[in-house]
Every structure is written in structure tokens, then in C-alpha cells.
Amino acid sequence: MLQLRLKAPYAAFRLFTAGSYRPTAPFLTPSAAYGLLLNLAAIESRRDDEQTAMTLTADNLPTCDVAVGAVSLPEVQSLYQQLHNYPVGQTGKERADDARGNKYNIQPIRRELLSDVDAYICLRSNDWLESRVREGLLLGARYRPEGKPRYGLPFLGDNNFLISVLREETSRVQAYWYVPVAPNQADPLSDLGRLTVRIDRQDTSRTVTRLYGRMETPALDIPSRAWTTIEPRGSQ
User: Fold this and answer.
1) Averaged over 112-121, what is the pLDDT?
2) pTM
3) Is residue 204's pLDDT more than 70?
């Protein structure tokens, strides 16, 4: 098993929403944790079929079990920003020339973010992936298996939310573990919310989400039900 300690001043894990208010998931999602692990392991999670408008998810990504826990509880903050995009249809086309090729549809929105993130990402059930993540942690940008460089810097949701601490820990401290909500939930859970497990960039109806909650009592050992199996489509 591999256990990573992660600290960051800010993070955001966007839900599939539209409109002027953009919330964040209450905590690090299993899909985001998995994506970070792939980044460290220098495994490209995207592919381009040269036909589809969006970037697709790569085939044959590794399967593994992931657990996430909060060493300390992050706070939800919000801020106002200007959202720039290319509108659908003819909306705002009179501003296109003035923008000189830039995104000309501008609207104020409010974005949520998490502050003071201190978390665990734990990985099991895939020794090969664990080994690659450890190599990536050790070598950083110099890690180039198969001659392919790692894509970009690790970040948490928005590409300006960089990570301040990322290390493997062999001695854990207590954490509030996030577990899927069971049909007959016996113990109380806090911070209920839907977390993404697998994202389908081409067809959002195939994106997998589950209802999770935070255990109210911190624990040193990872509860068995905190583990989520990540099985990308076409995984190996």
C-alpha cells in the first residue's frame, strides 16, 4: 500500500454545473486522487482521436483502489470572477470584433474553493502503479519512463492551485476518512456530497459519482469501506 500526504493552500473539485454559481465538491474526489496518481506516475490519461471536439480519456489505464481522508478539515470559501468563453449560437457576437480573437462572452460568476487542504491519498491493489508513483515522487520532472515526460505540474482542480507538500508517509496520523454512504447507514456521517469516481469527457451521462460522507471520528487505520475501486473504461 502507498500513502501520500498532501497539503495545499487552495483546491477546487468542480461538479458538473452551469450558471453563475460554481460549487466545489466538499473534499478531494476519488477521480481527482486517481488523476494525481497518474500524473506522478507519468501516465498520460488523455488521448486525441483527431475526430472528437473534446480530449478523450485514454484507453488501458490501470485499475486500483483509492482511499481519501482529511487530516484537518478544509474550509469552503468563495470569490467572484469574470468568466470568459465563446458563447453558443449568436449571443454577444457584436463584441467579437472588439475582443480581437479573444473570448468575448464575459459574465460575473461566483466560484467556491477549499482552503487549507491537508489530506491523505492512499493506493492499493496495483503494485506496478505504486512503483511508478514512488519513482515519480523521487525524480519529479526527470521521471520519463518510455522516454515520455510527465504532463505539467500536479495541481488540485484549477491549474493555479498548486501543491505545497506531497510526500509518501510510512507513519500515518489520524484522519477523517470519506466513505460511500450505504443503504442502511448505521453510524452518522458529516459533509455529505456526491464525489466523482470516474469521469467520461465525451459523454457526461457515463460519468460515475457516488454519495460520500466524512466519518465524524478520526481514525488511524483506513476503514475497509473507505476504499473505492477505480475502473476506467477499457482499463487493464
Assistant:
1) 96
2) 0.86
3) yes
Lowest mean pLDDT among 59-63, 138-142, 163-167, 199-203: 199-203
108 vs 20: CA distance, rounded Å? 7
Contact by Cβ (8 Å): 197, 210: yes
- Burial of 127-142, coded b for 16+ CB within 10 Å and e otherwise, reads eebbebbeebbeeeee
Contacts of residues 78-81 at CB distance under 8 Å and 24 or more positions apart, as own/partner, are: 78/110, 78/111, 78/112, 78/113, 79/110, 79/111, 79/113, 80/108, 80/109, 80/110, 80/111, 81/108, 81/109, 81/110, 81/111
Would you state the cell numbers that stand for residue 212, as one nine-digit string?
460520500
Residue 154 has pLDDT above 90, yes or no: no
Residue-wise DSSP of 37-85: HHHHTT---EE--SSSSSPEEPSSPPPEEEEEEEEEPPEEEEEEEEEEE
The three cell numbers of residue 189 are 456521517
Query: What domains sit in the chain, N to C, each tagged with a CATH number?
Result: 2-80+114-230 (3.30.70.2660)
Q: Report residue 123: phi and psi, to 5°.
A: -130, 140
Higher pLDDT, 104 or 234: 104
